[in-house]
Amino acid sequence: MTNGLPIVCRPMRDEDAARVAALAEELGYPSTAEQIAARKAVLDREGRHGLLVAEDERGAVLGWIIVSEMTSLELDPHAEVKGLVVTEAARSRGVGRKLMAAGEAWARARGLREIVLRSNVIRERAHAFYKAIGYDEQKRQVKLKKQLP
Q: Where are the domains of the chain?
């Protein structure tokens, strides 16, 4: 609950794009509502992603999660949390727990037996949150990037 109101997790809708974009910016990934809508359309077509939002009783979107079914040669199919954000004003009020539980339920419903996530090494508060809900640190990584012409 946040401010005494119950939190409900539901599938992301097209009309959530502006709020989802604002939350992405809070996470450090500036996006427009148009960009979010276009990305959501692609993810919806692929059919292997759970895009969920948490909203309060008034319908205000407080956070979102994207969970994807991953397949690779070296690992069995599993779920991966690709993004999670809760608005700063609603943090530490159970919203993130609700979103993670909804993401885990999405994965179980698809028959997946494992869920993983990656979190920037500087997000120590997030690491403590994930550990508190049962996630164990497996390794630290370096992300490399190259712009393609």
A: 9-132
pLDDT, tens only, 44-70: 999 999 999 999 999 999 999 999 999
Choosing among 3.40.50.720, 3.90.1170.40, 3.40.630.30, 3.90.640.10, the CATH entry for 9-132 is 3.40.630.30
Residues 6+ apart with CB under 8 A from 21: 31, 32, 33, 35, 36
Torsion of CA 148, 75, 50, 85, to 10 degrees: -70
Instruction: Tell me the two tokens of residue 53.
Output: 């939002």
* pTM for this entry: 0.90
Average pLDDT score over residue span 113-125: 90
What one-character-per-residue DSSP string does 71-131 give?
Answer: --SSS-SEEEEEEEEE-GGGTTTTHHHHHHHHHHHHHHHTT---EEE---TT-HHHHHHHH
